[in-house]
Amino acid sequence: MTGWDNAEGKDVIELAGGFSAVDEADWMEAAEAALKGRAFDRLRSHTIDGLPIEPIYRGRRDASALAGRAAGMPWTVVARVEHPDPAQANTLLLEELENGAGGLSLVFAPSKHARGAGLSIDTLCEMDRLLEGVFLDLVHIRIDGGYLSRSALALLIALAERRGIDPSALQVSVDIDPIGVFAHRGWTSGSLAAMAPRLWDLIHYCEDIGLKGALRNADGRIWHAAGASEAQELAYTLATAVTYLREIVSAGREGLQPQSRLSVSLAADADQFATIAKLRAMRRLWARVLDVCELEQTPLEIHAETAWRMMTRRDPWVNMLRTTVAAFAAGVGGADSVSVLPFTEALGVPDGFARRVARNTQTILIEESNLHRVADPAAGSGAVEALTDELVHEAWKLFQAVEAEGGIEQGVRYGSVHAAISKSRAARSRLIAARKAPLTGTSSFPNLAEKPVRVLNCEPQELGVYTAHFVLPKPGRGELTAALVAAAKSGACTVDLARARDALRRVEGAPLLTYRLAEPFEALRDASDAHLKQTGRRPKVLLANFGRVTDFTARSTWAKNFFEAGGIEAQASEPLEDGKSAAAALRDTGADIVCLCSSDALYAEKAVEMAEALKGAGAAHVYLAGKLADEDGNLARAGVEAMFYEGCDVLAALGLIHANLGLCAPADPA
Q1: SS3 546
Q2: The model scores a pTM over 0.90
Q3: Cα torsion for 87, 89, 95, 101, to the nearest 10°?
Q4: Which CATH class is domain 521-661?
Q5: pLDDT tens-place string over residues 517-535
Q6: How far apart are CA 244 and CA 258, in angstroms?
Q7: Distance between CA atoms of 558 and 541, rounded to whole angstroms?
Q8: Across 36-162, where does the E strand assignment appear?
Q9: Can you give the residue ranges of every domain in the chain?
């Protein structure tokens, strides 16, 4: 490193001064040398959207930071609260707030993100119990209540007034997302046009009392959890946001900034650069919308939550790594608030330890890594800028196609959105099945001896029945919402407050099913667990290793990983010399099936002998680790039923083995 005096007379350190200057040609030369004559194109790859990912990018000195979170300001650490019991939920949320969280996401049972749990808050008294000890005017609160979101907001406003807090001091975002609900469950209680007067009523009321915050949320998490690509998640979220923007503008409220009543939620997953680029692309897309609509350019409120579809039930500790990468990417990408799913989320309601890890993940990124101190730190990165550009272009094209069909509501109702997402889901599923996109701890490097983790034991609670009988006014300029708040104060329950939705005409569609990437492999493991419970042992495979250690180690290690991903215990033999020793090894282990493991050269010499001996010793099924031609059919005649190798359809192969062994997944208790 060298230093010199600049124009102001201050010493400047040149960080790159001690390194030789290199250009793109030098990088290409080094890459070609490493490839040893193989094509450079093998280093190129593509996203699910078909967007190119180059091995080398030039820095973008023409790039500028995207306006979002203010420079130097950390994002808000938001903790999910979904325990059905108000008292226990209160204990959990107070621990979150006392140890670093700055916001709460109140996930009610009807929410599309509750996943079998969710808050069961019936009355103002229960809302008071839930938020006991919480300084409502100091905490950012997100209400994710499904069809109860408006009722929950009425309870929150009534609670603030009971405590003497001016509603204008509250920081509230309401995740009312009728399009997302429609897509998720395949029906909605009414069309957007029919529901619009309620939104207008809510807007007028909130403007009158000074309550700030979003009243519509375009939720990209639902598209992502169903299998959408990055561009699809952006396009459908943008189309939803634009639809809601039109609704808000139609409220006709003088002086209203419509964009201030709208927020966006996006999924952050373990694909670090794709997540960073996705959040940056969302800001550029929204800026374009505001420009076309001739609205003031104000930063879009973006909430990011670590992705549900990447979470695993098997070896859930690995989820800590996935969510750390996702939280990092969300923060760098400019999210205003971030929720990290605890690592046991896929197993049930997380306990205090899992919540602590999730919370501290963000605390460390903010307080120790100082990620928030630079506005848009990815600006100028050749790779991130290129991917951002590609996503903006592709998402805008998809958005225009949705608009041309009549908007996102029509796309959901008539299935075009579902069809597009299904294609992306299928493409990704093929990568998962072949382990080209491995899931550590599940499809790769499984641990059959893993210990169970602790989650909270809680049962969903039923919401109350009608308790109050009162007349609700029709939506107007705040009259309905004011009546809901007054009813909440008088003791009405959430079912009473939700009655205003009953008169609408139901609209049918098709459900957009969410999933986790690990589910097919987890089903195989579940079948193995059921076999263990029933018989006292797991199905076992003998890895018949023959030759020198250097001949079989690589394939034997691969085969162990392969079989145990399906819950089949793999036991490696000592080095075998011939068919006789292989037969003895089978008898000693009592294995159900056998997999030959060695080099191609030794397969040519001994595989037929080994297979015949093993079949003669009682092996029900014999397989081979590797990919051989077997043009003369000798291996097949000797009893080798299938060959397994890197790049094969691992999921289909394990399914075949399970079928051969007579294994089946346990019945779904639902």
Answers
A1: strand
A2: yes
A3: -140
A4: alpha beta
A5: 999 999 999 999 999 999 9
A6: 9
A7: 13
A8: 45-46, 52-53, 76-81, 103-107, 140-144
A9: 2-43, 76-369+408-456, 521-661
